[in-house]
Design a protein that fits this description.
It is built from 1 helix and 8 strands. By secondary structure, the protein is mostly beta strands. Strands 1-2-3-6-5-4-7-8 form an 8-stranded antiparallel beta barrel. It is elongated, with a radius of gyration of 51 Å. It starts with a helix and ends with a strand.
Length: 208
């Protein structure tokens, strides 16, 4: 027998043995699928920063306008503006038709009543702390002591002064509201009990 025939027989025999013994090689199993990635929880919604509370609008400073009328036979005309400022009340007083020229006392009086011809219906000086009368340069004085306004030869004059401790609040014990402004015929010399300022030649009710 030829060598090539023997080789063929051996090859077929070997193949048969492999088939009979299940020696065929199966393809390798597919690798397992990777586990699913864990679900990422959505980040908590960011809370908006609280908006700062809007500041309440500041109240405008209270102002009161006063019209002065002539008293005791004078020819005085004029007006006053009272405005709340930090720590007190600013009083701006302006008059004309006043004689003689020189200094004339001015005060806030305790009653808002200018009905009498001599202005005495306004009562005495406004003095809630029961102090002695004095000029504004003295710390302890009537709260209504405004000092003097200077009248020129033309009969006109003005006064601007801030009174610490006063206010314009209704019902407050230190309030000028509901009182009266009086202009006098003479200079307030600071003497007792009310400055020797003479007749009341002008009166104006402080409303409010």
């Amino acid at each position: 027998m030829k060598t090539s025939s023997i080789a063929t027989i051996l090859a077929f025999g070997t193949f048969g043995l492999l088939v009979a013994c299940g020696g065929s090689t199966e393809p390798p199993a597919a690798p397992p699928e990777p586990p699913p990635a864990p679900a990422v929880e959505p980040a908590a919604a960011e809370k908006p920063e609280p908006k700062p509370e809007a500041e309440a609008p500041k109240a405008e400073p209270r102002m009161l306008q006063v019209k002065l009328e002539a008293k005791s036979g004078s020819k005085l005309t004029g007006s006053a503006m009272l405005m709340e400022v930090e720590g007190g009340v600013k009083v701006t007083l302006s008059v004309e038709g006043v004689k003689p020229a020189g200094d004339h006392g001015a005060h806030v009086h305790e009653k808002g009543d200018c009905s009498s011809p001599d202005g005495k219906s306004a009562g005495g000086h406004f003095n809630p702390a029961s102090n002695d009368h004095a000029l504004p340069t003295t710390e302890k004085r009537h709260l209504g002591d405004l000092g003097n306004l200077t009248i020129g030869k033309d009969g006109k004059g003005s006064l601007e002064i801030t009174i610490p401790g006063a206010n314009l609040k209704a019902g407050d014990p230190n309030s000028f509201a509901g009182k009266a402004i009086i202009v006098h015929a003479k200079k307030d010399d600071g003497g007792q009990p009310v400055g020797n300022a003479g007749d009341r030649i002008g009166c104006g009710v402080i409303g409010g």
